[in-house]
Design a protein that fits this description.
Helix 7 links the parallel strand 4 and strand 5. Helix 2 packs antiparallel against helix 5 and helix 3 packs parallel to helix 4. The chain is globular, with a radius of gyration of 17 Å. The protein contains eight helices and seven strands; from the N terminus they run H-H-H-E-H-E-H-E-H-E-H-E-H-E-E. It has a seven-stranded mixed sheet with strand order 3-2-1-4-5-7-6, sandwiched between helices. The N and C termini lie far apart (44 Å). The protein is an alpha/beta fold and 222 residues long. The chain binds S-adenosyl-L-homocysteine, 3,4-dihydroxybenzoic acid and magnesium ion. 3,4-dihydroxybenzoic acid binds next to loops.
Length: 222
């Protein structure tokens, strides 16, 4: 058994301990596949981790950058109290449409607002509107502007806000020096910034399993 096979075996084993998969979450992935969306949603284990983090910080308001089909959105929305709200930002109107259907079908529609358009515009609009600050931010859209998304997230955060960023390892490419892939350089810039930013306490978690070798940054605003 090679490494990857073993990692997937462990993923399946641990996931199995939680009981049968949630039919709403399975249906979300099925509808995403059917609609031809890329299979790049977070793993179930990461979905669970997002829930744990949201509950740990008593999150009522969540900001998500990158909706896709609403898979991670649903994990997050389900971690919130009845009056909780997720604002999720999505560039692609087709993705947003699939997500809207998925969120409604999963019963979390009323607590999720999807803002369609470039995330940088939506983030600026939220700040200009004086939106109520967020308790947890999940950054998971295009990788090149990750550092800008961090900055915008900080403007919408309060002390104690948890900021999570997906895909900060990219199969190890972040550690292999300069890259001509702007997704890699974007994430490199993000990690360099977050590691030294005095406004946050941050750490990194490498992940393996069904989604391959990648990682998460988890930070909390001081
Ligand atoms: N968080 C989702 C996966 C998001 S995939 C989950 O785990 O279920 C990344 C998403 O970001 C894609 O749907 C893509 O269309 C969107 N995206 C890419 N560039 C964007 C941008 N500039 N602004 C907003 N969304 C963007
Ligand atoms: C890609 C994006 C993601 O958010 C992810 O989790 C995996 C892959 C990508 O654009 O390739
Ligand atoms: Mg991702």
């Amino acid at each position: 058994m090679d490494g990857q096979e073993l990692y997937e075996r462990v993923d399946d084993h641990l996931e199995g301990l939680f009981g049968p998969p949630d039919p709403d979450l399975v249906a979300i992935q099925a509808r995403a596949d059917e609609a031809g969306l890329p299979a790049i949603a977070v793993s179930p284990a990461t979905g669970r981790l997002l829930q744990v983090l949201a509950r740990s910080c008593g999150a009522r308001r969540v900001l998500e950058v990158g909706t896709l089909a609403g898979y991670s959105t649903t994990w997050l929305a389900r971690a919130l109290p009845d009056d909780g709200r997720v604002v999720t930002l999505e560039f692609d109107p087709h993705h947003a449409e699939v997500a809207r259907r998925n969120l409604d079908a999963a019963g979390v529609g009323p607590r999720v607002e999807i803002r369609v358009g470039p995330a940088s515009d939506s983030l600026r609009a939220l700040t200009e509107e004086g939106a109520e600050l967020f308790d947890l931010v999940f950054i998971d859209a295009d990788k090149a502007p990750y550092a800008a998304y961090l900055e915008a997230s900080l403007a919408l955060s309060h002390p104690g806000t948890v900021i999570v960023a997906d895909n900060v390892v990219r199969r190890g490419k972040v550690a292999l020096g300069p890259s001509d892939d702007e997704a890699v350089t974007g994430v490199q810039r993000f990690t360099e910034r977050v590691a030294r930013d005095p406004r946050v306490t941050a750490s990194f978690v490498q992940t393996v399993g069904a989604k391959g070798h990648d990682g998460l940054c988890i930070a909390v605003v001081r």
